[in-house]
Amino acid sequence: MAEITRDVLIVGAGAAGLTAANDLRKAGLSVAVLEARDRVGGRLWTDVIEGAMLEIGGQWVSPDQDALKETLEELGLSTYSRYREGESVYIGPSGELTRFTGDIFPVAPATEKIMVELIEKLDAMVAEIDPDRPWAHPNAEALDEVSFEQWLAVQTDDQEARDNIALFIAGAMLTKPAHAFSTLQALLMAASAGSFSNLVDADFILDERVIGGLQQVPLLLAERLGDDVLLNQPVRSLEWGPSTGSGTGGVTATTDDLTVRARFAILAHAPVLYNRISFVPPMPRRQQQLHQHLSMGFVIKVHAVYDRPFWREQGLSGTAFSPYELAHEAYDNTNHDDERGTLVGFVSDKHADGVFELSAEERKERILESLSHYYGPEAKSPVVYYESDWGSEEWTRGAYAASFDLGGLHRYGNDLRTPVGPIHFACSDLAGAGYQHVDGAIRMGHLVASDIVEASRTTSAAAGSAATSAAAGSES
């Protein structure tokens, strides 16, 4: 078995791990990045399917995502605006389609009034939340013990208003039913984007795309690291030593054919995968419990490519919403300078469970039928059809990110990023600002690299001091 030694071992070649690795290299520390997959990028993945370039994973850039935007500029990547000219469509509980403009769905005046009031109330609550420390809110415990569905039920008995407000968090973001996560978790999701209003505004949250695909970020970061990125290397065990007065005990990672020894380790992958690694000694009790209260959401990202963007001929932007449809939201996802038109739709949580009980052909038929309710019968006949199913990805196990069960965030959130001896943690699931987005992954990569550089300097200084004291003692 081959063996290498580095200052820092990074597990996971996604945006967080590769950002951290590049920062550490710039600081003069040696690194090795071990990636279980045969590619870099993690939940960023651009591929060509039947001649069509599809962004199978994350893809959008929002105006508030400063860390991502700075990285794009530094890497020389360009963006383009998502197509949004024309009217959006909404399908209500009766199945009636209505065209509209703006952010608020075209509902009855009384329902619209309630929705506006709920958005304003949520914005006020979100303004009190620190996305890096939501558990520090004075009412954190109470908010974390009430599901978002229960909270909405207390606010109003207007079911359509509740369904639509829940859609922005449950279906569109956490991809879990609103009864499965807390109000505090919902507020964190909104606070990570700046406000609840930002989640409601599709033109904000889904503002731009990267020409050539967002996976270019990890691809270009990995290029700079060269042979220090090793693919097809799932870590089977991680031996670690506890912190001591003079530093850390170091780590030894073992894959099927490689051993890596390092002073520090960064776990830069989804926390639901921590249990794929055998830790020696085991993780402390606190982390063992914490990790059992996190789970991934579940969503199918559906790509439908047509010979042209036919919906634009109808004066439609391609933006579509309905909590009552199988595909609860959909957008024009046409690539830059592409004559063909692409729609992207999303089927989440219980609906996704249901369609995976069907055959592939029947599932496709059902999903395209749902899209046709928004765009007309032509939506049933794409030239390319593809489903991004992250729930079946061995090294991801869901999408878009991990969130806590009821009560878990205020109970365990403060320890999400707490290092365990020489082991540090970084991924979008742990972010405050940019939570569950590549922007958050980059932020976490920068943060953990900074922490390790500081720890490295501290341990080096301590070791130097110890050596000086020993020398002085021997001379006396």
UniProtKB/TrEMBL annotation:
<dbReference type="GO" id="GO:0016491">
    <property type="term" value="F:oxidoreductase activity"/>
</dbReference>
<feature type="domain" description="Amine oxidase">
    <location>
        <begin position="16"/>
        <end position="452"/>
    </location>
</feature>
<dbReference type="InterPro" id="IPR002937">
    <property type="entry name" value="Amino_oxidase"/>
</dbReference>
<protein>
    <submittedName>
        <fullName>NAD(P)/FAD-dependent oxidoreductase</fullName>
        <ecNumber>1.-.-.-</ecNumber>
    </submittedName>
</protein>
<dbReference type="InterPro" id="IPR001613">
    <property type="entry name" value="Flavin_amine_oxidase"/>
</dbReference>
<comment type="similarity">
    <text>Belongs to the flavin monoamine oxidase family.</text>
</comment>
<dbReference type="InterPro" id="IPR050703">
    <property type="entry name" value="Flavin_MAO"/>
</dbReference>
<dbReference type="Pfam" id="PF01593">
    <property type="entry name" value="Amino_oxidase"/>
</dbReference>
<keyword id="KW-0560">Oxidoreductase</keyword>
<dbReference type="InterPro" id="IPR036188">
    <property type="entry name" value="FAD/NAD-bd_sf"/>
</dbReference>
